[in-house]
Amino acid sequence: MLHVSERQLKTWERSGLAPAMAVYSFRDLIALRTLAALRARRIPLRNIGRALDSLKQRLSDVHDPLAELKIFSNGRRITVRVAGQNMEALTGQILLDFDTAGGGNVKPLPPPAAPMREQESESWFQKGLFLEETGAPVEQAVEAYQQAIELNPHAAGALVNLGTIHYRLRAYKEAERYYTQALKADPNYPLAHFNMGNLYDERGDLARAQQCYETALRINPRYGDAHFNLALLCERRGDALRAIHHWKAYLKLDSTSDWAEIARRQFEKLRVALLS
């Protein structure tokens, strides 16, 4: 119905943007249709996730923004219609509609300098994403993200991506610096907490890694990757009961992928060990 491939759907499920279900209700299809429309406009998944997290924090009575709200994109900006007004989903900024059909020379006021810098920063961020996705030299992506941060020091997405680039290069000190800056810019960014957890896990600091994964899950309980990594970490710490809990949570979000097969094997191994 929505022309969404199984691979696309599994990616959305792993990102916590879509529920892993065998049968979908009409409400679920509305949410998936909105998500498909945003992806058709080349909006990155991480941007969609951040926007949805922001909407749930700002609108306490909304639990499933994709199904309950009218969400659309205006260029690279994710916009939501609330109480008859358009709002920028990530920042909560009200977007004024200037209706010129009634005649007159009404024109939108020029935006102030700060939002213009933020928009330019977002453009550099999107360029960095594009360079990474197309396999360009890593130096080019780093330069784009650094331009984004120079224009907007609170560009958490660019900071996280710079941290991840350095993490992959095993430059862990630099990675930690960027992740720390990202968390200062946006303390409720689950990906930043998750990636910091990966960094601590790589260093063998399991206690701090666990704290980071758990924080990511408090912000987004449907964060499948955080459940997966936390289950593995709990196994390494000898906490079988908590590991089982997180394997079960992961399998509720992802029941069919190759990762789900790993989760199912680990869950069954622990269950048998506890019963024996």
- The dominant shape is globular
Mean pLDDT over all positions:
83
Q: How helical, in percent, are the residues?
A: 55-70%
- What value does the Rg take, in angstroms? 20 Å
Residue stretches low in confidence (pLDDT < 50, at least 5 long) are 98-113
Major sheet details: 4 strands, antiparallel
The number of E-state strands comes to: 4
Q: Bin the strand percentage.
A: 5-15%
DSSP summary: helix tally? 13
**C-alpha termini separation:** 47 Å
Classify the secondary structure makeup into a structural class. alpha+beta
Read across the widest sheet, the strand sequence of neighbours is 1-2-3-4
**SSE pattern:** HHHHEEEEHHHHHHHHH
How does this structure look, described?
There is one protein chain. With 276 residues, the chain is α+β, with helices and mostly antiparallel strands. Among the domains are: 90 residues, no CATH class; 76 residues, Serine Threonine Protein Phosphatase 5, Tetratricopeptide repeat (Alpha Horseshoe), CATH 1.25.40.10. Helix content is 64%, strand content 6%. The chain has 13 helices and four strands. The chain has a four-stranded antiparallel β-sheet. Helix 5 runs antiparallel to helix 6 and helix 7 packs antiparallel against helix 8. The radius of gyration is 20 Å and the shape is globular. It starts with 5 loop residues before the first helix and ends with a helix. 36% of the residues are buried.
